[in-house]
Amino acid sequence: MSAFPQHFLWGAATAAYQVEGAYNEDGKGPSIWDVFSHQPGTTYQGTNGDIAVDHYHRVKEDVKLMAEMGLQSYRFSISWPRLLPEGRGTINEAGVKFYSDLIDDLLAHGIEPMITLYHWDLPQALQDEGGWEARSTAEAFEEYARLCYSRFGSRVQKWATFNETIVFIGHGYITGSHPPSVRNPARAIQACHHVFIAHAMAVKAFCGMQINGEIGFVNVLQPHSPLTQSAEDMAASELADAIHTHWFYDPVLKGCYPAELLAQSQALWGVPRFAPGDDDLLRNNRCDFIGLNYYRRETVSSQPPAEKVSGEQGVEGLFYFVRNPQSVYTEWGWEIWPQGLTDGIMMIKARYGDIPMYITENGLGAVDPIIDGEVVDDPRIDFLRVHIDALETAIEQGADVRGYYPWSFIDLLSWLNGYKKQYGFVYVDHQQNLARKRKKSFFWYKDVIASRGEQR
Questions:
Q1: 353: domain range?
Q2: Which of 74, 96, 170, 186 is deepest in the core (most CB within 10 A)?
């Protein structure tokens, strides 16, 4: 018998910029990604989300495919500038209608919506005022959240404020590979603080408006393992946990920063700077649940690798991410390590108690083979199967995990990698008018859902 409880939700996920398109239609304002992706050299072959996979115009077709697959829940994000073109103030009713109709259509097909308020597409108007480095952006986010609650809150019970702060702050303010293309750790830390404040303001508004539901935060779940059992590598791995995990989980689950890291950051750079009342805001407005996006673990060394690894590098002088010689990697250099999902879930439970969890992303990016007209994505099926096994093990060990949302429902735009890497259950043919085609994994996941996880 499967360990998955009856109320467990089998879903899938996407994000607005990566699927919707219609970037300048029906009153939508520009986002930072609309502007950034049009600058030469910023993305693979100049790809952008102007059209993406045209979900905006094909939404009914896509929801029918979700229903056919048997999805019990769909996690999607709302485009802030589609609702508020300037980030605040004048409401774009056409944008509100798009999401309202989507929610109604999902519910009509028995699919529970889970809304992510922010999946990286900040209104450009707010970036022009300072973006996340400006506290006024957090205040604008509260206004945006209140608009969403007031228009959709009677029909949507599951809400997440932010997706993967470590990514949009890390790449936006440290590596410079995402907008606003800054490379300054001190500015990154202050921007990150304003994200946590925006989250706390949105949680406070959610409770104050008495929305019948639950509100959480979505973080990367990236366990770290030392390369060797040397004291140096173990210390480096613990530091990676502190900087890449505790810094991003503690403020939303404990209501405060890790004390030692906070003291070190403020001594070194004078950030984060707290406005009066920030301590109370964080302490009194914590999550109802945490969303976990798990793709891989990182192996940590105290010494830099002999040759550069793809993806994240660690923090120069403190710890380095290295390739594990005993492991298997995708063609994009991401380790396939399902045990890390079990370990990561139990790590969160150990540090934060019995917080409800949802696996809000988990998936394999690959170039899917097409054989005799069929998209035969067996590696994706194998990847998801072993991760569902690992998730079941965590539930058996007492973790309160309430849903599983593979990334992604449909092939979509990867932020910097264009369309060369696929993640979806549904293939999109960019040579044939963006036609949708069910992959082998579509039918496999349909059986998993129908059997409530027993058949996999």
A1: 7-449
A2: 74
**Model pTM greater than 0.85?**
yes
Average pLDDT in the chain? 96
Rounded to an integer, what distance in angstroms lies between the CA atom of residue 146 and that of residue 142?
A: 6
Give the active site residue among 20, 142, 312, 361: 361
Give the residue ranges of the annotated binding site for substrate.
18, 119, 163, 295, 407
The pLDDT confidence band at residue 310, using thresholds 50, 70 and 90, is low
Are 443 and 389 spatial neighbours (Cβ–Cβ below 8 Å)? Answer: no
DSSP-based helix, strand, coil % in the chain, nearest 5: 40, 15, 40
SS3 135: helix
Region 121-129: mean pLDDT is 98
For the cut 90, the answer to whether the pLDDT of residue 309 exceeds it is no
Structural domains in the chain (count):
1
SS3 at position 49: coil
Which residues does 156 contact at the CB level (< 8 Å), separation at least 6? 103, 113, 114, 115, 213
Measured at the CA of 57, the angle between CA 55 and CA 58, to 5 degrees, comes to 60
Residues 188 and 174 sit within 8 Å (Cβ to Cβ): yes
CB 81 within 8 A of CB 29: yes
The pLDDT, as a whole number, for residue 420 is 87
Single-letter amino acid, residue 424: G
Q: What is the pLDDT of residue 307?
A: 72
User: Is residue 330 a part of any domain in this protein?
Assistant: yes
Of the candidates 164, 298, 335, 392, the residue annotated as catalytic is 164
Active site residue 374: no
Q: Is 361 a catalytic residue?
A: yes
Residue 419 located in a structural domain: yes
pLDDT at 260 over 90: yes
Q: What are phi and psi of 418, to 5 degrees?
A: 60, -135
pLDDT tens figures, 154-186: 999 999 999 999 999 999 999 999 999 999 999
Q: For residues 69 and 125, give the distance between their C-alpha atoms in angstroms, rounded to a whole number.
A: 39
How far is 360 from 160, CA to CA, in rounded Å?
10
CB 123 within 8 A of CB 81: yes
Among residues 189, 185, 85, the alpha carbon closest in space to that of 133 is found at: 189
In a domain, residue 392? The reply is yes
CATH number at residue 43: 3.20.20.80
Three-class HEC string of 354-378:
CCCEEEEECCCCECCCEECCEECCH
Q: Which two tokens stand for residue 455?
A: 């058949």
- Enumerate the β-bridge partners of residue 414: 418
Examine residue 454 and state whether it is found in any structural domain, yes or no: no
For 69, the token pair is: 């697959």
